[in-house]
Amino acid sequence: GFPRTLGQAQALDRICELDLVISLNIPFETLKDRLSARWVHPASGRVYNMDFNPPHVQGVDDLTGEPLVQQEDDKPEAVAARLRKYKDAAKPVIELYKSRGILHSFSGTETNKIWPYVYTLLSSKIPPVLSDEEN
């Protein structure tokens, strides 16, 4: 997400005024597992997830048959360190937006269960866009 640090939040304040901030609270283990299951085809940038978007043949790109690689920062130990660092850096950002009364937090482990709540919030804040036929 963005902003990730208090410095980024302060820089964002200088160019726009936020009236809504969404925080998704996903358990540490869920994030670690999902990020650690990510593999990439380096030449194309195609991304696979071994849990919910695996290649047809394990370890090879669907289109080229070339090997997939796991980037160093997607290995479980690196993911855990990244998540700890992010949590520490993001805490003051969360507190800032909470103190302004614009923070809306959602918790869960599955997109399809969290999204309806996020959508309802956004729908209440953003007027619907009507098609030319509806105008």
From TrEMBL:
<dbReference type="InterPro" id="IPR027417">
    <property type="entry name" value="P-loop_NTPase"/>
</dbReference>
<dbReference type="GO" id="GO:0004017">
    <property type="term" value="F:AMP kinase activity"/>
</dbReference>
<dbReference type="InterPro" id="IPR007862">
    <property type="entry name" value="Adenylate_kinase_lid-dom"/>
</dbReference>
<dbReference type="GO" id="GO:0005524">
    <property type="term" value="F:ATP binding"/>
</dbReference>
<dbReference type="InterPro" id="IPR036193">
    <property type="entry name" value="ADK_active_lid_dom_sf"/>
</dbReference>
<dbReference type="Pfam" id="PF05191">
    <property type="entry name" value="ADK_lid"/>
</dbReference>
<protein>
    <submittedName>
        <fullName>KAD4 kinase</fullName>
    </submittedName>
</protein>
<keyword id="KW-0547">Nucleotide-binding</keyword>
<keyword id="KW-0418">Kinase</keyword>
<feature type="domain" description="Adenylate kinase active site lid">
    <location>
        <begin position="38"/>
        <end position="73"/>
    </location>
</feature>
<dbReference type="Pfam" id="PF00406">
    <property type="entry name" value="ADK"/>
</dbReference>
<dbReference type="InterPro" id="IPR000850">
    <property type="entry name" value="Adenylat/UMP-CMP_kin"/>
</dbReference>
<comment type="similarity">
    <text>Belongs to the adenylate kinase family.</text>
</comment>
<keyword id="KW-0808">Transferase</keyword>
